[in-house]
Every structure is written in structure tokens, then in C-alpha cells.
Write a structure and sequence with these properties.
- This protein is mainly alpha-helical.
- The protein is 68% helix and 0% strand.
- The chain has two domains: 204 residues, no CATH class; 148 residues, no CATH class.
- The protein starts with a helix and ends with a helix.
- One of its GO terms (molecular function) is heme A synthase activity.
């Protein structure tokens, strides 16, 4: 970020026609950029924490939700009351019957931490936002964009509760559709913040070289469809987690003894198979993941000889590295950690 900000700052003050999102000078751009990158990192940690909460099966431990937040149980009596509420849930009756109070406290604290970490993110975003607005650092265009992201973040809490509520009614698991909506919203917030941060510190391709500008345009044309494939793959991972499809086939590259398992189109109507059939959901995710790996590798290959700014080339290389890490973690979890595979796909998408 420091290199990008420095390069972007060269000549911007004297260059006409450049639409800056922060107009109070290089120092202001740097401060706003650090804040936005920090916010994006916080959202990233939220997604990882959500994956861990999923892996530990803690998400249904809190049976109510308050928009303003709530204090955790502070006495034995309060803990007993919360435990009694949990005992009325489908998860306790069908999965955790006989659970001890200490075990309940563990999953409760996991879910409580996830919720409070999200509220802390809201505070961490709102306070600097108000400060920068008061200082006049933020333009109207940037202010509207950030207000939209803040509203989406506030709505994410309600989406999360909407998701959890589906697991407190009949079945002891959340709706895969609601889980996918929750994850998709999280990725939208993360990418929106990260993209905006880059737009602040590097509002246009460095123009010291015309070939750099042309190279950046070529990368953009290639990266947009690749990004779409990555997004679809991530959402398909939520359906794997939501349907507990990871438990069904713990082998790779085959699914059991075959490449394509039986019964992948047994549900009616046909479209349900792609969202609710465990075999089809996992097969789709594997195909999409392989396509993602191939497309990102192709992006790197086709841009090897393109004249690019070092920061752009570094981002491409980092993307390839994270993709390889993603593949390694996914396969390792699939083969060696079958006892937590109910949430493995979501966890793997978290580190993407």
C-alpha cells in the first residue's frame, strides 16, 4: 500500500482531470487508505472467525438476538437460564443431548465472540468515518460509497440472525440458502472495502509509462471474469457447508470409488440437486474449484510478458499464492479432518 500510495501521489497534485476520492492531500489519502485496508482486514478476520464458529458447531448456541447487543451471562443463574433456552432447540435435542454446562459455555463463548467482533467492527468503522467527514477528507462520492458499505455491514447482523433462526425451528442446521446469503454479503463488504481502499491510494494506473496503462487495462479485462468464477466458487462452498456435503465424500480426487457418484440428479425438480443434493453440491464445488485454479493460473500465464507496474504484478502473484494455499487447505481438510468437515468448505473459502 505504501508503494502504491507513493506512486499514485507523484504528479497528482498538478495533474488535471484526475478524480480523487480524498482531496485533502497525500497525508489524508494515506490515513483514509490505512483505515479502509484495516477495515477490510477486520472483515477478513470476521469471515475466518465465522468459519471457526461453524467448525466448532457453535452457531446455534445463542437462541436469541438483540440488535443493540447483550451482555454475556455473568452468574451461575444466568448461565443456567441460557442453557435451558438451548435445551429447547433442535440441535440440543437431536445432536447434543446430555451436553454439560461447561461444553455449552465453550460454544456459547465462540458464538458470542463472533457477534461482538462484528459489532466492534461497526464501531471501528463508524468513528474514523465520522472523523474524516468532519475534517473534510472524504468527497461526496466516497461518502456515499462508504455509507452504502456501512449499511450493508449493519444489515449483515440481521442476515446472520435470519440464518441462525433457520436452525432453531425444525432441523438442527441452518438453511444452506441463508448461509450462502450470509457469506456472499460478507464477501461483498470485504471486496467493496478493499476495492475502495485501492481506489483511494491508487486512483488511476501509474502513468509514468503508457505501456503500464495499457497493461493494467488488459489485466482488468482478464481479471473480471476470473473474479466472477472465484465468487461463484466461494458461494458454492457455502452450500457444501450448509448441506454438510463435506462429510459424504472424504476422498480426493475421486468421490468414493468413482469420479461421479450415483444419485446426483435424483431430486425433483432438477434444479434442487445443485443446491440440496449432497453429492451434486460437492461435485459442483470440486469442478468450480478446479476451474478457479485453472483460470487464475491462466491469468498469471497470459500476463507474464505484459509490461505491468510492479504493484499490479505483485497482486497477481499474491493471488496465485493464495489460490495454491486454498487448494492445499481444502484437500488436507477433506482427507485428514473428517470430523470437522461439516464446516470445512466455509473455512477454506475464508482464507481465500
Amino acid at each position: 500500500m505504501r508503494n502504491s500510495s507513493t506512486v499514485a501521489s507523484v504528479g497528482l497534485e498538478s495533474k488535471e482531470g484526475v478524480k480523487l476520492l480524498v482531496t485533502a492531500g497525500p497525508h489524508a489519502r494515506k490515513m483514509v487508505g490505512i483505515w479502509l485496508f484495516g477495515s477490510a482486514a477486520w472483515v477478513f478476520s470476521m469471515v475466518i472467525l465465522g468459519g471457526v464458529t461453524r467448525l466448532t458447531r457453535s452457531g446455534l448456541s445463542m437462541t436469541d438476538w438483540k440488535f443493540t447487543g447483550q451482555l454475556p451471562p455473568l452468574s451461575d443463574e444466568e448461565w443456567s437460564k441460557e442453557f435451558e433456552k438451548y435445551k429447547q432447540s433442535p440441535e440440543y435435542k437431536r445432536v447434543n443431548k446430555g451436553m454439560s454446562l461447561d461444553d455449552f459455555k465453550f460454544i456459547y463463548w465462540m458464538e458470542y465472540g463472533h457477534r461482538m467482533w462484528g459489532r466492534a467492527l461497526g464501531l471501528m468503522f463508524a468513528v474514523p468515518f465520522s472523523y474524516f467527514l468532519r475534517k473534510g477528507y472524504i468527497t461526496v462520492q466516497l461518502g456515499l460509497r462508504l455509507s452504502g458499505l456501512f449499511a450493508l455491514g449493519a444489515g449483515q447482523g440481521m442476515i446472520g440472525w435470519w440464518m441462525v433462526k433457520s436452525g432453531l425451528e425444525a432441523e438442527p442446521r441452518v438453511s444452506p440458502y441463508r448461509l450462502a446469503a450470509h457469506l456472499t454479503s460478507a464477501f461483498a463488504i470485504y471486496t467493496g472495502l478493499f476495492w475502495t481502499a485501492l481506489s483511494v491510494v491508487m486512483p488511476e494506473p501509474p502513468a509514468e509509462s503508457v505501456t503500464w496503462v495499457r497493461g493494467a487495462a488488459k489485466v482488468k479485462r482478464l481479471a473480471l471474469p476470473v473474479g466472477l468464477i472465484v465468487g461463484i466458487t466461494a458461494v458454492s462452498g457455502a452450500f457444501v457447508a450448509g448441506n454438510d456435503a463435506g462429510r459424504a465424500y472424504n476422498t480426493f480426487p475421486k468421490m468414493g470409488d468413482t469420479w461421479i457418484p450415483d444419485g446426483i440428479f435424483e431430486m425433483k425438480p432438477l434444479i434442487r440437486n445443485f443446491f440440496e443434493n449432497t453429492a451434486t453440491v460437492q461435485l459442483d464445488h470440486r469442478i468450480l474449484a478446479t476451474t478457479t485454479l485453472a483460470s487464475i493460473s491462466a491469468l498469471w500465464w497470459f500476463t507474464r510478458k505484459v509490461d505491468l507496474h510492479p504493484a499490479v504484478r505483485s497482486l497477481i502473484g499474491s493471488t496465485v499464492g493464495m489460490t495454491l494455499l486454498q487448494v492445499y487447505l481444502a484437500i488436507r481438510l477433506l482427507l485428514h479432518l473428517p470430523f470437522i468437515l461439516g464446516g470445512s468448505s466455509l473455512f477454506c473459502e475464508c482464507v481465500m
